[in-house]
Amino acid sequence: MRRGGDRRFEGASPEELASELAPEEWVCHAAGEGAKGPRLYDWARIRRPWASKDGFEHWLLVRRKRSTSAEKAYYLVFAPPGSSLAELCVFR
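RESULT FIELD:
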């Protein structure tokens, strides 16, 4: 899990931030049920260095296909402090 607090977020695209993720930061989670069973993707998160006035944490959630495709999807998620990656996948 990446921690924010520095200037690397200023002007950085989601693609640039995701390219810095280490292989061990990706975890397999389902993105819901499909016609042939669970739709599995690899997920990672990057904590944004801001919190809302309600105390919610800001995360960049990244989903990538498990195939050799480099296709990714990006979500900005606001979640209660201490939320796990699995919980963030549900919040999206």
